Amino acid sequence: MTNPTDKLAVWQHLASEAGSELLRAVRGKPQIGPRDLKRWRERFGVEETAAALDLLNARRKAKRKFPDRRDLLADPQGVEQATSALVADHKAKRFAALGPARIHDLCCGIGGDAMSLAKVAPVVAVDANPLRAWMAGLNADCDSRCADVTTLELRDEVFHLDPARREESADRRRRMHRFGDYQPGPEFIEDLRRRCPTGAIKLGPGVDFAELPSPESTELELISERGTLVQAVLWTGDLAQRPGERTATCLPADASFTAHPQPLREPQEPGRYLYAVDPALERGGLLGAFVEHLRAAHTSVGVVHEKLGLLTTNDRLEQPLLTGFELHRQMPYRQPKVKAALAELGAGEVEVKTRGGAVNPDEAQLALRGRGGEADDRLHPQAGPAEAGLPVHASRPIMSVPGARNKIHPFAENDKTGPPCDGPVLERAACAGKRRCRLRVVAPPHCSYTFANSRSGRLSSMSAHLA
Ligand SMILES: C[S@@+](CC[C@H](N)C(=O)[O-])C[C@H]1O[C@@H](n2cnc3c(N)ncnc32)[C@H](O)[C@@H]1O
Predict the structure, then answer these.
(1) Which atom of ligand 1 lies at the shortest distance from residue 164's CA?
(2) Cystine design at 140: which of 114, 293, 333, 342 (Cβ 3.0–4.6 Å)?
(3) Taking the domains of the chain in order of start, what are their residue ranges?
(4) So what's the pLDDT on residue 2?
């Protein structure tokens, strides 16, 4: 294996005028075969060819995160770990408001964050990996150093820190949610905060909040990008604008809500509209506070269920943190019946939303597709009537699970992308004394469940929530 310094020399060569012929050759070949590889290796060198392939692969991967940076210097893994330009710009705005003389971007990787930070202040980007430090310096056009950040003697500097996650564990994805597994870890972070109180620590959105330091003096922000939860940021010192509170931000709408988490009020029956809440709001535990905030103007707002992440109201709400649907009908999820109901509503293509793997949305979408609705009046959320000002769905049935009065044992299973699953909530009020009843099962989206009927011992994987 090439040592990191040799690898850096290879990449430096590739990025120079001398490497451009190899890059042109590789870029010009959409289908690369063994003969091409052999020719390039003989002519340009084995390591150089590998680096060129890596770079072009990384640039392909980077198109979504960095649409304006076709010249990015990166390896594919560096792109995967990088903060996107959209999220990095959002974070950089908070630094800009502070007007720091300089920002240290610690564990800078290829410079995803540094590129945005450098627009608001001079940046010193630091990474233990010489190749990454070099890439960040060129990508962000900033000062960059190869160093182990735990050896730096910083004092009263403003910092951004993006610790790496330990990856060697067998149960890698689960471990990534433990703050104690970040590298550098909690001890270094505490020490850094003592020396440099003001900064931002980037975390995975699945990190266990209970392990985070100083909740009363820091602000935790959860950020979603195009509907997907992408990161959490622990703001400290002067960058914590609302210490002790949490913020949910959705991008690119650039809408934020900040509050102390508070309990949800009692669930209520669905009203005329249903609103799927942004995952940042839900993960931040801010649903209860958000409902109270909305209730100041819309008294009918409430949650459909405490674990469903779904609000309901009789009013239309214009809120970037919510995606609204008009409720046409509520019914148990029996595919033929749902299909018939959709057909009655003139549905063509339908978009099925589900939680907890209740149904396979691709299969259900195919099965439920009707004959109505050409492209223009597709019944999916983006295609609501303009005058309604709301995306409207043809049908948003709440799925119910047929049960019996026998005891039903749920077994929670975490798909390892979120925090531990507590176990589902079974709404069984309607079951009392009945031979057959329906259970509404709700749970966080990353959890799925299997149920065993205690009398028959039969196992069924009915973990349904929402269609
Ligand atoms: C998640 S990546 C950073 C991504 C970066 N924020 C971006 O947007 O491109 C974490 C980086 O931390 C670096 N790293 C891990 N431990 C380090 C240490 N003790 N000192 C310096 N860098 C370290 C790794 O080399 C890796 O590049």
Answers:
(1) 10
(2) 114
(3) 80-258, 261-467
(4) 60
Q: Is 421 in the pocket of ligand 1 (CB under 6 A)?
A: no
> From the alpha carbon of 112, which atom of ligand 1 is closest?
8
The region that residue 288 occupies, defined by phi over 0 for left and psi between -120 and 50 for alpha, beta otherwise, is: alpha
Cα–Cα distance for residue pair 67/174, rounded to 1 Å: 31
Q: Which strand (E) or helix (H) includes residue 26?
A: helix 20-27
Q: Is 203 in the pocket of ligand 1 (CB under 6 A)?
A: no
Give the model confidence (pLDDT) of 30-71 as tens digits. Answer: 788 889 899 999 999 999 999 999 999 999 999 999 999 999
Q: Which of 349, 354, 418 is nearest to 382 (CA)?
A: 349
Please say whether the beta carbons of 388 and 420 come within 8 A: no
Distance set, CA 109 to CA 62, 78, 134 (Å): 14, 6, 9
Pocket test for ligand 1, best of 108, 187, 231 (most atoms within 8 A of CB): 108
- When pLDDT is averaged across residues 350-357 and rounded to a whole number, the result is 74
What does the pLDDT average to over 106-111? 98
- Rounded to whole angstroms, the Cα distance separating 22 from 279 reads 44
Tell me the two tokens of residue 141: 């056009």
Query: Residue whose CA is closest, atom 26 of ligand 1?
Result: 109
Task: Count the neighbouring beta carbons within 10 Å of the beta carbon of residue 101.
Answer: 8
Ligand 1 touching residue 130 (CB < 6 A): no
Question: Which amino acid makes up residue 25?
Answer: A
Which residue is closest in CA terms to ligand 1's atom 10? 164
Parallel, antiparallel, or unpaired: how do β-strands 436-442 and 447-453 relate?
A: unpaired
Q: Look at residue 385 in the predicted model and tell me its pLDDT.
A: 27
The pick from 162, 181, 225 for probing ligand 1's pocket by mutation, whose C-beta has the most ligand atoms within 8 angstroms, reads 162
Q: What is the CATH number of domain 80-258?
A: 3.40.50.150
DSSP 466: B
pLDDT digits (tens, 9 = 90+) for 207-219: 999 999 999 999 9
Pairing, β 143-146 against β 123-127: parallel
